[in-house]
Amino acid sequence: MQIELNGKLHPLPDGATLEQLIAALELTGKAVAVAVNRQVVPAQSWAGRALVDADRVDVVRAIGGG
């Protein structure tokens, strides 16, 4: 299947979850916010949130600075 990840097509195995996507992006344990089809998905729900073909996923990473 293919999703739209931050505006670009991104292939994923069928049935992949948000948790698996975040792990594949090497963002596990990082401060990130995720929305699927413009709906924010809390981190505790990522494991149970299966993605489907053509989902629009936005991942935003918080980066500190100063």
TrEMBL record:
Task: Fetch the CDD domains from UniProt.
Answer: Ubl_ThiS (cd00565)
Q: Which SUPFAM superfamilies match?
A: MoaD/ThiS (SSF54285)
Concerning InterPro entries, the annotation shows: Beta-grasp_dom_sf, Mopterin_synth/thiamin_S_b, Thi_S, ThiS/MoaD-like
Q: Which Pfam families match?
A: ThiS (PF02597)
Domain of life, per the record?
Bacteria
> What is the name attached to this protein's record?
Sulfur carrier protein ThiS
